[in-house]
UniProtKB/TrEMBL annotation, chains A, B:
GO cellular component: cytosol
Luciferase-like domain ranges (all copies): 9-339
Protein name, per record: LLM class flavin-dependent oxidoreductase
Domain annotation SCP2: ranges: 490-574
Swiss-Prot/TrEMBL keywords: Monooxygenase, Oxidoreductase
Gene3D superfamilies noted in UniProt: Luciferase-like domain (3.20.20.30), SCP2 sterol-binding domain (3.30.1050.10)
Pfam family, one: SCP2
SUPFAM superfamilies: Bacterial luciferase-like, SCP-like
MF-aspect GO terms: monooxygenase activity; oxidoreductase activity, acting on paired donors, with incorporation or reduction of molecular oxygen
Length: 580, 580
């Protein structure tokens, strides 16, 4: 049994109203809330880094916000979660500097969350190629952790970063550096976190029972095969959930469900293919207009004792009474989850309700989980110690620059340019491959955009008429072609799709994944690992980005049979974007 | 008569001791000091951004430090001074985001200082070409101020920044944006600040009587010919001085002079050509060993009533009694300076002495300058209003992106690459010119390094023997060749050099600047604008970076006749580096 810790999680959401001073109030309210959380015993406050995601997240400089929070709090840990590591967004030296400075002003309370960046708004805004962001993450985290421990940092010459030897100052209070985390949204990335020996910060609103499998695999990898990305291992799994607490369940729902649903809706907006016109698109209005058809119908949420058992996937999350939420947490605890972090400041949720919930959590929920926590954590540390020691021995050690180096601006600039040139693919063949991959990705996304326009606003009947069985064949063949084995986390087997039509007929399709390849055929599967049952029109809406599977699922318009946890990663396996 | 405001100025200096926890103490002491300053009535706290400048400045993430300070203070303004604007250091969108976020958490208390970056450690570390940093500053400040006011920012396609339309959020509390400043170290950059309609943050330790000419020119340009870089004009001139205050002058000197001198020594170390081995060079020890020969002899500073009249140039600054310092401030006030900012945390200056000085300043100096300040400021604003209105009408207005833009990652990446390619010089000729300029700059700096090794540690006699009149001819011809008209601020006329030798003989040399060109000849000048009298050996030491003119001046080893204020800009005019 693990010890469980609690966090608050901030996106700084702000439905567009145009009111004077609303951003300032949002920030000052959040600081007040965190002050309360610190007092009542929350362990973490997490603050995202997102750029240009109007309404969904006005938290573009979390280093500034968390530094402000550091002076309003005494013991709560400051989760810098997540910093976008592609060097086009943040120069690695600037990341090391700001993390260290935050560690200094907070007296060593920083947790350093990392991510690749993922929305089109951010990747396009900073000119980061989607196909290279994982490689950029790996490169940057290696460089940054070396900046923490090497004195001086011995320099870097990769495709993404060229930097001469420098002593990067200041240094962190925590040694060798603050605990590392990575944003995860799929089982594959949880594995990735484990292989890198860093904490998994999971945003996939996973049910406790599914989380159990994730944590089991996570710790198996940590104990057996991880090669740490940093110079310390941080074995921890955190799940993130919307929350609102009240003794009266109906009040909790009334206060919290719109915010939770807006959170889900706006996430789908920015990470799907919904068109976005910067400064103009009003996501909050779109939410109010389209929430029901997107699966976020307010009326479907009914207060009842069993609610939290089934509705995590629908973003009901931890909206309920202290008993309900404590029960939910117990299940995560049983699943081996180390931390649950709550999103309270979502949509238009009210400041006073958030403060009340935090106080109530501190009074009525948190005390149930405190007893024996330190002991259990000590036991866990002791149990993992040999594995961690072995893992750290596998990581390439800190380098020692021989004395006598001299800073030399001109020579360094020349060397950096040479290194950058050398990292570029040379010759006609790799260059052509690059152009081709880019053209393909681009063409695909262009096609999806056109597709969205054909689908959006049409009735089921219209869509079914326009896209018959022949069109279905094209789409399934396309999915199979776009299959990306690196995103499949080793999955092999049959995926079955049963597309129902208004006239009651069903078209069965199967995609077989084997030997790193996918193949589509019409007809039922022999041994489907997962069967997806949905309307033909809704299926096409999903492909076009006009509907999202989680919402359909909650609406009862999409049913799953078999290995549920495979479902959320289908879109990545077949070439779609993910939220982190 | 202007109204004068007061600031504290932080570099976060930390002589290398290797003690555990020293950086954390440095930061936490600074926060305590700022809290006192806020309480006793200081108006500004300025925090630099410097990278890799060990010992001289451990302030690499001022956005984090100032955010912490925002929650410890109520009314003091937070001077982000200066943010390095080359996009290789900070992406312009990240700068806009952090300035806005700091403005939010501080309730609108940010002043936004900007600079080009200038040390070899920083330019080489981030791969910024020295010859392009001014152009990068201009490009970035235009983009950043548009990010503040355009909603959405309509995008950017220049040589240095390619960014598609995005709504950069959050927005600042202060409208249209926080007051802008630029770091200045020479008369030329003061003019530059005025032409751009932004505050001049001057680091050149200028004497009050010289400052009068600067402010006069500054306000003449503001009123007549400025084209604002931002969307508001910030007409202000700030000077920065070391400070330590005590009723007993000898105590003030004892507590403050080493810090002030280390400040000057370390500045010369990083902005001259002294070799630096990252993580190894001990600047504090070099200071202790070489302070006297570098002109920072502790014993030369003697408590006497007239001290502050003559020693500003020697970094005595505002180290003295309340009466002395108030007198000095009166002279700056009379010179039209709008703000004096004090460096207290320098070298090994003690926390308790700094706190005492801040308290004493609040009690005994500040009250003398408060009366009628608001009225005088209102008068100034009223007087300048028509000129500012006219200036703002000259600035290209905020753009309005037509509605209907759609975020499109692929298309945006392709467009960014195309824009970058288009901005590159094409064809053989410009490309060759680029290579040539770079090779020249590099060769020059290489030569200077070799020269340093020939000079360093030699006696006057050795140097005179080795470099006779023939060598002098080579150096003067070289200076004339390296003359850069863009750094001369319109100067024309004769500069005379009188090089004295141990045997009592004098070699006179003249450099004539006319029509954008410089020419050197042996012999006295007819009408020298400035005459520089120094030993032949010291002159060569200065050229090699082994001595610095300010120290020689203070030591009496260098004398000036004529237009004093021309002297500090000689090194830039003839191709040397500057501290900002």
């Amino acid at each position: 049994m693990v010890a469980i810790r609690f966090g608050l999680f901030y996106e700084h959401q702000m439905p567009r109203t145009g009111e004077q001073g609303e951003e300032q109030r949002l920030y000052s309210d959040a600081l007040d809330q965190i002050e309360i959380a610190d007092r009542v015993g929350f362990d973490y406050v997490w603050e995202v880094e997102h750029h240009f995601l109007e309404e969904y997240s006005h938290s573009s400089a979390p280093e500034v916000f968390l530094a402000a929070a550091s002076q309003r709090t005494k013991r709560i840990r400051l989760g810098h979660g997540i910093v976008q590591l592609p060097p086009g967004v943040n120069h690695p030296a600037r990341v090391a500097e700001r993390v260290a400075t935050l560690d200094l002003v907070s007296g060593g309370r920083v947790d350093f969350g990392t991510g690749e960046s993922s929305s089109s708004a951010e990747l396009g805004g900073f000119g980061v190629r989607r196909g290279e962001k994982r490689a950029q993450w790996s490169d940057a985290i290696d460089a940054i952790t070396r900046m923490f421990v090497e004195e001086p940092f011995a320099g870097w010459e990769s495709k993404y970063l060229q930097m001469p030897p420098r002593n990067v100052i200041p240094k962190t209070v925590q040694k060798p550096h603050p605990p590392l985390w990575v944003a995860c949204s799929r089982r594959e990335t949880i594995h990735f976190a484990a292989r890198n020996g860093i904490g998994a910060l999971s945003f996939s609103f996973v049910e406790p029972e599914d989380a159990a499998k994730w944590t089991e695999e996570y710790y198996r990898i940590i104990e057996n095969e991880c090669v740490p990305a940093g110079f310390a291992v941080n074995p921890n799994v955190t799940v993130v959930l919307p929350m609102m607490l009240h003794e009266d369940e109906a009040v909790a729902i009334d206060r919290g469900i719109d915010g939770a649903h807006f959170f889900g809706f706006a996430l789908a907006h920015y990470y799907g293919t919904t068109p976005h016109d910067p400064g103009r698109t009003n996501v909050w209005e779109e939410f109010l207009e389209r929430r029901a058809q997107s699966g976020f119908d307010r009326d479907q949420i009914i207060a009842n004792a069993e609610a939290l058992n089934v509705n995590v996937g629908s973003l009901r999350g931890a909206v309920g009474t202290p008993d309900q939420v404590a029960d939910l947490i117990r299940r995560y605890e049983a699943a081996g989850v180390d931390q649950v972090s709550f999103v309270l400041q979502a949509g238009n949720n009210k400041h006073e309700h958030i403060c009340e919930s935090i106080e109530l959590f501190g009074k009525s929920v948190l005390p149930r989980f405190v007893e024996g926590r330190e002991e259990r954590e000590a036991q866990k540390a002791e149990r993992l110690a040999p594995a961690i020691e072995a893992a750290l021995a596998r990581r390439k050690p800190a380098r020692e620059l021989p004395p006598g180096y001299r800073i030399d601006e001109d020579a360094e600039l020349v060397r950096a340019r040479r290194a950058k040139r050398a990292a570029r693919p040379t010759g006609v063949r790799p260059a052509l491959a690059l152009v081709r991959d880019e053209a393909r990705g681009s063409a695909r996304r262009q096609m999806q955009k056109g597709f969205y326009r054909l689908i959006h606003g049409r009735s089921d009947a219209e869509i079914e008429r326009r896209f018959g069985p022949r069109a279905q064949r094209v789409f399934f063949a396309g999915m199979a072609r776009q299959y990306d084995a690196s995103m499949a986390g080793g999955f092999e087997g049959e995926l079955e799709f049963r597309l129902t039509r208004a006239d009651g007929t069903v078209s069965p399709w199967t995609i077989v994944v084997r030997d790193g390849k996918a193949r589509a055929r019409m007809g039922e599967a022999r041994e489907p690992v997962l069967t997806i049952i949905t309307g033909a029109a809704d299926f096409l809406r999903t492909l076009s980005g006009d509907a999202n599977p989680a919402s359909l699922l909650m609406d009862g318009k999409l049913k799953l049979r078999g290995d549920f946890e495979l479902a959320p990663k289908l879109s990545e396996m077949f070439g779609g974007p993910s939220p982190y």
